[in-house]
Amino acid sequence: MSAKDKLKHLHGEIAELRSQINKLKKVSEEEGKPLAKCGSDMESQREVSFKVAHELTGHYGKVYALDWRRDSIHLASASQDGKLLVWDGISTNKKHIINLRSSWVMTCAYSPSGEMIACGGLDNLCSIYKLPVEFGLPEANDRPAQELSYHQGYLSCCRFVDDNRILTSSGDGQCVLWDVSTSDPLRTFEDHEADVMSISVCDQDPNIFVSGSCDRTARIWDTRQERAIYTFVGHVTDINSVRWLPNQQVFGSGSDDSTVRLFDLRAYSQINMYGHDSVQCGVTSVDFSSSGKYMFCGYDDDPYGGVWDTVNAEMIQPLKKKQEKVRISCLGVPKSGYCLATGTWNNLLTIWTTNV
What we know:
By secondary structure, the protein is mainly beta. It has one helix at residues 3-30, and strands at residues 50-56, 63-68, 74-79, 83-88, 94-99, 105-110, 116-121, 125-130, 139-140, 146-149, 155-162, 165-170, 175-179, 184-189, 196-201, 208-213, 218-222, 230-232, 239-244, 250-255, 260-264, 269-274, 283-288, 294-299, 305-309, 314-318, 328-332, 340-344, 349-354. The chain is built from 1 helix and 29 strands.
């Protein structure tokens, strides 16, 4: 197929996507569905309802990051108390505790095999710990198996590509691809003009990842190339979180401008935006349900958290317990999609499940 034919085919896909979106919006309008209200007194306008299933207590400081293992049972959490905890998300038991040398941790990530956990923060390092095969000893003071040192700024995010490669982003404006076994940087990605706050590896192709930065752009990278292959604009201030829609060429980005924007690589454009006049606070974190039907957001102020309808861009439920007012700093959905975990500044992890 020639380049001209490929371009014609892509234009056809874009037109089809737009047609589908317009049809869905038209159906919604014809059914007379009211717009959901945002804010602390909002009630769900739909049958779906996310409720608290478990609270995981054990941290003594603000929870800054969490990540699910691929078995959808275990999850890791990193806190300002200087602890990296491994939990059983079903029984809520603590399985392992790692005492970190620096309490200023900002990110953590499970390796695909589940045998390693990486973390980092204001120490500018990415520390990788090996987990025991059997969680016999509850606490470990071991040194990291690997310490990846290159960044000249804080480590904002880390994500494994596979068990031997990991990506990191930093306040120095760079992303780095590492060889875990040798602790050597394999490639640096330097197109951003300010702090890079978040990265997410594509499900469909692990060589592709997206980064969000304080330069207000989200950029798509191929780990085999040093320059960004796409640059997406639209946000008017810092991007704090980026996340791929499961098994799609679509990603969401959450910003201090109070909105989340949905971008499609095939259309090379924004295809939806999630915001409301009553939400005037920054987005701290973003994730999607396994089907992509729902988008989950954490905010640094009221409404603190929300469940959005991904297609209709309506908030259908706030994510908070009664009248509790606490910042959601991180959230994540396991691969199986059976629940949602949130980490908050009141030292708690919360497991949410739905009635449908």
